[in-house]
Amino acid sequence: MQRRSNEIEEEEEDGRRGLESVRESQLEGRSSGTVSMNGEDCVYVGVGKGDSSMEALRWAIDNLMTSSSTLLFLIHVFPETRFIPYPLGRLTREKASQEQVESFMSQEREKRRTLLLKFLHACSASKVQVETILVESDSVAKAVQDLITILNIKKLVLGIDKSYARKATTMKGNSVPELIMRSSAADVCEVKVICQGKEINMEQATMASSPAKSPIAHRQNKDQPLDPFACICFISKPKTNR
After folding, report:
1. Which of 45, 120, 155, 156 is deepest in the core (most CB within 10 A)?
2. In a 3-state reduction of DSSP, which class is residue 27?
3. Distance CA 41, CA 122 (A)
4. Angle separating helix axes 51-63 and 98-125, nearest 10 degrees
5. How far is the C-alpha of 131 from the C-alpha of 32, rounded, in Å?
6. Bias category Basic and acidic residues: which stretches (predicted)?
7. How far is the C-alpha of 216 from the C-alpha of 126, rounded, in Å?
8. Quick check: 156 and 144 in contact, CB under 8 A?
C-alpha cells in the first residue's frame, strides 16, 4: 500500500520567504487539488539519504528548471512500518498499542521532515517552486514506476552513487535507476541519471539490453498516451493508526 503526501508550508519572516516545516497528510487520487502534478512543465526528482540525491537535485535545478512556472516535485520513498520498537525488542504493528504506534510514527515523520528540509532549502535558495510526494513502499523502484504511470510523469531525475555508476552504464546491476530504466515506465518518461553532478548515458545501454526494441519503436512508445484508467488501481485508502 502506498501513501502520498504533497504539502509544504512556507512562512514569511523579516521580509524573506523561508521553508519552515514539512507536513504529511493523507491524499487520495492524483493531486492535492492545489497544484497540477502532471504535464510537461513539471520535473520530478527522487531524493533519499545518499549524497547522490542532492547532486541530482542541483543538476535538475541547473538544467531543467527552464521557467518560473516550472514546478519541481521531490519524491521520497520510505519503507512500510511493520514493527514497532520497545525497550525489550520490537513488536509487530498489530500487537503494539496505539500509543506505541503513534509515538514511533511521530518520530519517523520527524526524521523524514529533517531529511527533506535540506532539499527544500536548496530549492528555496534557487527560487524554485517545490512540492513533496511521500510514498510508503518497501520497493523504491516499484513505487517510482507506479508514480510515473499514476501522475503521467514526463521528466524524472535520479541520482546514483559512483560505486554503482560504472555497472549502471552496462545495465547489469540492480540499482534503482537501472530497475526503472529497464521497466516499461522508461518508455513514457524521460529519465535522467546523475552521478557526481554529471548525467550518465544509460538509454543506449538499455536499448542494447533489449534488442527487440528498435530506436523507432522506443520513440513511438514515448509518444503514446497513457490509458486514462490505468491509475485507478493505485488509488489508496488511509490506513488506521496513522
Report:
1. 45
2. coil
3. 20
4. 40
5. 10
6. 14-27
7. 38
8. yes
Quick one: residue 154, left, alpha or beta (phi over 0 = left, psi -120 to 50 = alpha)?
alpha
Q: b/e per residue, 189-228, with b = 16+ CB within 10 A? A: bebbbbbeeeebebbebbeeeeeeeeeeeeeeeeeeeeee
pLDDT digits (tens, 9 = 90+) for 160-218: 988 777 666 566 678 898 899 989 988 999 999 999 999 988 765 444 444 444 443 44
CA-CA distance, 177 to 168, in Å (whole number)?
A: 8
Question: How crowded is the C-beta side of 147, counted as CA atoms within 13 Å?
Answer: 32
C-alpha to C-alpha distance for 177 and 160, rounded to whole angstroms: 7
Neighbours of 124 (CB within 10 A): 18
E strand or H helix that includes residue 166? helix 162-168
Measured between alpha carbons, how far is 139 from 147 in angstroms, rounded to an integer?
12
- CB-CB contact of 204 with 184 (8 Å): no
Q: Is 242 exposed, middle or buried (0-12, 13-18, 19+ CB in 10 A)?
A: middle
Does 236 score more than 50 pLDDT? no
18: β partners: 11
d(CA 168, CA 60): 20
**Using CA atoms, how far apart are residues 135 and 46, in angstroms rounded to an integer?**
11
Contact 45, 70 (CB under 8 A): no
